[in-house]
Amino acid sequence: MAGTAYRDTAMPCRCSRIIHGTAAAPAVVRVTATPFSENDRPVMCAHYEFTGSRGRFVKGRWKTVDPPVPGTEIWMIYDPKNPRRSVPA
């Protein structure tokens, strides 16, 4: 459902392994274009927001060739000790 995830080349991979994560259902707030493509399909950056287990507001993003429509609720796994570390489920 979340589509294909791509490593964000602009920042170090902070979410390559989340072994004991917590599930969240953030909403996609916007989808932006990137200068990349894969198999002649544009790679898009989906931005999402959610409230972490400690009540903090968290923003995240991931790159995909099949982005959801803004407003769509998606499933993510995040590190409760560092909610900025999150990946699509």
Describe the structure.
Helices cover 0% and strands 51% of the residues. The protein is mostly beta strands and 89 residues long. It has one domain (22-88). The strands form 2 sheets. A 3-stranded antiparallel beta sheet has the order 1-5-6, with no helix packed on it. A hairpin with a 5-residue loop joins strand 3 (41-51) and strand 4 (57-64). The N and C termini lie close together (8 Å).
Outline of this structure?
The protein has strands spanning 22-24, 27-38, 41-51, 57-64, 76-79, 82-88.
List the defining traits of the structure above.
mainly beta; three-stranded antiparallel beta sheet; 89 residues; 0% helix; single chain
Number of distinct beta strands = 6
SSE order in H/E notation? EEEEEE
Unreliable residue runs = 1-15
Helix content: under 10%
- Strand proportion, as a percent range, falls in over 45%
pLDDT average, as an integer?
83
Shape: elongated
Number of helices: 0
Q: How many domains?
A: 1
Q: Structural class of the secondary elements?
A: mainly beta
Radius of gyration: 13 Å
User: In which order are the strands of the major sheet placed?
Assistant: 1-5-6
What is the CA-CA span between the terminal residues? 8 Å
Major sheet, described briefly? 3 strands, antiparallel
